[in-house]
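chain and backbone:
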Amino acid sequence: MYEDGKLSVEIGKRIYARRKQIGMTQEKLSEIADTTPQAISNYERGERELKAGTIIKIASALNVTADYLLTGKSGALSALSKTDEISESDLQIINDIIDKCIQLAKK
């Protein structure tokens, strides 16, 4: 299990990585999540704990699940990770493919 501080850092890393992946600024994320850019910066560095409502808003803005922000896994990917045949790197590739499919579907 994660220590409190370590969990905040891991969540922050996932927020930062996803935000960069989709090309979103801290300012835009803060607008959508109804918080400040400074708060987003603090979350991304793991210096501030997120409340449940904020996790949900940020997850929605980043088009991921709250489960993904909390654990690094979500939905079908979480179920797939329970098999021994799928590595973490393979799960990331699958997640990237799903993201690309969603982007293409929105066009």
